[in-house]
Amino acid sequence: MPKVRVAAIQMHIAAGDPAANRRRMADLARRALDDGAQLVLLPELAACGYDLPRLDTLAEPLDGETTAAMAGLAARYRAHVAWGLAERDGDRFYNTLALAGPGRNLLARYRKAHLIPLLREPDYFTPGGDVVVVPTDIGRIGLAICYDLRFPGLFQRMAALGAEVLLVAAQWPQARAEHWRILTVATALQSLAFLVGANGVGLCCGEPLAGLSVVASPWGERIAEAGTAEQILCADVDLADVAEARRKLPVGQGQRPELYL
Predict the structure, then answer these.
(1) Mapped to the 3 state alphabet, what secondary structure does 150-206 carry?
(2) pLDDT tens across 21-50, in order?
């Protein structure tokens, strides 16, 4: 099992300004990659922010400018880069997390399955319908977004599909910061997987964001945790720890899904 350097990019996101966000995303991701990161995660809707009434102007197709920029970085550094964007597909919009690999190719796209009523996401976005776990040369990676953390069944399914690293892109508010800290660690522990959570900082819809991006271990330890300012959070993880945790605690074998829903 390989050892992997991961990076969570904790950044200010300028709502409604994709060009400025792309520049900042590229700058911060490049700095993480220069530091040896093999897997870089940027926050939810990093490309445009939460300016949902203007989605018709701000959303972009999956093969748009943001993907070109991020996939270009992944190819140049022979690394993996994941980022959040508002995706346009025909007349529908999705809150999407995309992952590009070393071959400049798009490896996966996850469309947020659980839309949060508090931010009126269901009024603007179409919910996704897929659980996404993608095999890569640095391990099996599962993709999730923010509010998904409140739905453990999604992560149980990803663990059952063999996910070793869970990526959670977010714009999680300061008002519920402790929920973020608890849920990220609990999700890693329950899934027996590493979790990389990249949150935003600054304001979202007028409310301050929590920051506190995190890398958590399969044993529920915070390997690294950011503060509340813009930051590049890096950590080295050993995927052999996932296999060892699942050998010692084979909870997947004891699940009884017929009892849960």
Answers:
(1) HCHHHHHHHHHCCCCEEEEECCCEHHHHHHHHHHHHHHHHHHCCEEEEECCECEECC
(2) 999 999 999 999 999 999 999 999 999 999
Measure the CA–CA gap between 8 and 224, rounded to whole angstroms. 10
The catalytic position among 60, 87, 121, 146 is 146
Q: pTM for the full model? A: 0.97
44 is catalytic: yes
Could you say which of 44, 121, 164, 225 is catalytic? 44
Domain boundaries along the sequence of the chain = 3-250
146 catalytic residue (yes or no): yes
End-to-end CA distance of the chain: 35
Domain 3-250 has CATH 3.40.50.720: no
